[in-house]
Amino acid sequence: MKLRKVTAASAAVLALSLAATACGGSDDDNSGSGSSGGGGKIKVGIKYDQPGLGLKKPDGSFSGFDVDVATYVAKELGYKPDQIEFVETKSADRENALARGDVKYIVATYSITDERKQKVDFAGPYLLAHQDLLVKSDSDVTKGTDLNGKKLCSVTGSTSAQNVQKSIAPKANLKEYSSYSECVAALQSGAVDAVTTDDSILAGFASQDQYKGKFKLAGLKLSNENYGIGVKKGDTVTVDKINKALEKMESDGSWQKAVDTNFGPADYKNEQAPKIGQIVK
Ligand code: GLU
After folding, report:
1. Is the fold of 42-127+226-266 the same as that of 131-217?
2. Is the C-beta atom of 200 inside 6 A of ligand 1?
3. Which of 88, 84, 86 is nearest to 75 (CA)?
4. Is the pLDDT of residue 7 over 60?
5. Cα–Cα distances in Å, from 83 out to 37, 98, 234?
6. Keywords assigned by UniProt (predicted)?
7. Residue 152 Cα, ligand 1 centroid: separation in angstroms?
8. How buried is 94 (Cβ within 10 angstroms: 0-12 exposed, 13-18 middle, 19+ buried)?
9. Domain 42-127+226-266 coded CATH 3.40.190.10
10. pLDDT of residue 37
């Protein structure tokens, strides 16, 4: 009799735990490692106008190193490519997009800085780039200080714009636009004398058919830009999962493949894969 009672109680516990498991799979945001996204979508922030990194093509598809990293990470979180909804996150919008919960994570040439870490958390780094200058092929600008008194374009909310005023050319006439594609168009028209941001981004623009032979990179390595994947402040669970995904991407050869595919055409000589958690100051 006693034995039968225990058996009935165990069955009830088992039924309850099965019900709980079934409920757990319905969450849209279910990002459990290796689990399926449950048919839901995941929103990921990228840039839309940076060739080789994050680009929305005329047919609506996406390409670039950041897009490949974002897609690999999503796969590790349980989402297939068709479950990813890319959202444009411009430089000045990134912290707010995460705080509002517009996107789950951001892969958008997003440098890890102490200032930004007050507002968001970062996984990574997954790439080390350096600030540089893009000028016309016949320009005599060879160093940052040559830009004092000249018109220099960068993007609002970027580390590149901050560094100009802090150290590179404090007396330059800095024009801040909302995207690098606008800066590059201004360089072509002669509205500005140079564009400054990460060499990875500038190399991607310089290799575009319409700009071939017109521009050159100064090759100055003006800063270290450790690209991280931004997540909402406090979401350490997602940070840990993304770090695991990035480690796997490097060890299974997918990171190098994405580098070759996306930076090869721009002839961009990238640094080797960074160690997760190690920031180059
Ligand atoms: N990596 C730099 C930054 O996060 C410049 C590129 C960008 O604006 O995305 O500010």
Report:
1. yes
2. no
3. 84
4. no
5. 8, 19, 25
6. Signal, Transport
7. 16
8. buried
9. yes
10. 57
Binding site membership of 50 for ligand 1 (Cβ less than 6 Å): no
Under 8 Å between Cβ of 155 and 161: yes
Query: Residue ranges of the domains in the chain?
Result: 42-127+226-266, 131-217
The residue contributing the CA closest to ligand 1 atom 5 is 158
pLDDT(30) > 60: no
Q: What is the pLDDT of residue 16?
A: 37
| Percent of the chain at pLDDT exceeding 70 | 86
* pTM of the complete model: 0.88
Task: Calculate how far, in angstroms, residue 95's C-alpha sits from the geometric centre of ligand 1.
Answer: 12
User: What rounded mean pLDDT belongs to the chain?
Assistant: 89
- Protein residue whose Cα sits closest to atom 10 of ligand 1: 158
CATH topology of domain 131-217: D-Maltodextrin-Binding Protein; domain 2 (3.40.190)
- Which of 109, 153, 221 has most ligand 1 atoms within 8 Å of its beta carbon, as the pocket-test mutant? 109
CA dihedral 269, 142, 49, 74 (to 10 degrees): 30
Q: 4 vs 159, which has greater pLDDT?
A: 159
